[in-house]
Write a structure and sequence with these properties.
Length: 237
């Protein structure tokens, strides 16, 4: 299979990252979590007093955009990519409810999206990558070879996010998470700059009742149907 860009878009907490990571591992592709990048900007704003009482000082954040440097580094012990903000690992910090409450508002800021989209395009240019987010197939890489739009029921998404936080031994409230996801859905779909929507040429995947293994079986069948050749060494035994 020739190297290509695989774009996975969809709603928050529907399992995009888990699915994207599995695809990248199967095909030997690089994986880029764009949601983590917006979370890192949100964390920077919180740490530097740019957000006060839930209100974002947009101009101050725009003035500091050149001070924000985000990259991903592989953890040798876990074999997972971790998010670094200005040289510091922030993988755990960016997953908190405090960041989740504000990340959709941060990502709706035009200047923030322009900066990160440019960075994402540079990261993926001329490479075999799997990238997940909200606007990968519509804005970042509209010519991506494969586009998948993921969704799941609100109840399933809430439970997945709750389980994720519990597993990481972080504070978790089911009701708080449900409210946060509903708020983020509204902001993501209604923002002026690159709103969340399914690309016309993307295939939809509702994984409400699917396990990670079942998702990969679905993906393998999808590749075969689209006549994308899976490298023999990567086929499931």
């Amino acid at each position: 299979m020739n190297p290509l860009i695989i774009a996975i878009d969809g709603f928050s907490s529907c399992g995009k990252s888990t699915f994207a990571k599995a695809i990248a591992q199967k095909l030997g592709y690089a994986y880029i979590d764009t949601g983590a990048m917006y979370r890192a900007v949100t964390l920077f704003a919180l740490q530097n007093g740019i957000i006060a009482d839930g209100t974002i000082d947009v101009q101050a954040l725009c003035n500091h955009l050149n001070d924000i440097h985000i990259d991903f580094r592989r953890n040798k012990e876990t074999a997972e990519n971790e998010t670094f903000l200005n040289g510091e690992c922030v993988e755990r910090d960016i997953r908190t409810i405090a960041v989740s409450e504000l990340v959709s508002e941060i990502s709706a800021i035009k200047e923030v999206r322009q900066k990160l989209v440019s960075l994402q395009q540079a990261m993926g240019r001329d490479k075999a990558i799997v990238m997940d987010g909200r606007d990968i197939g519509t804005n970042v890489f509209p010519d991506a070879g494969i586009k998948i739009f993921m969704t799941a029921s609100p109840e399933v998404r809430t439970q997945r996010r709750y389980d994720e936080l519990v597993q990481k031994k972080m504070p978790a409230s089911w009701d708080e998470i449900a409210q946060n996801l509903a708020k983020r859905d509204h902001i993501d779909q209604s923002r002026e700059e690159s709103p969340l929507r399914q690309a016309a040429d993307a295939i939809a995947l509702d994984n409400s009742d699917m396990t990670p293994d079942e998702q990969m079986i679905w993906f393998e069948k999808f590749l075969i149907q689209r006549k994308f050749k899976i490298p023999d060494s990567k086929i499931r035994n």
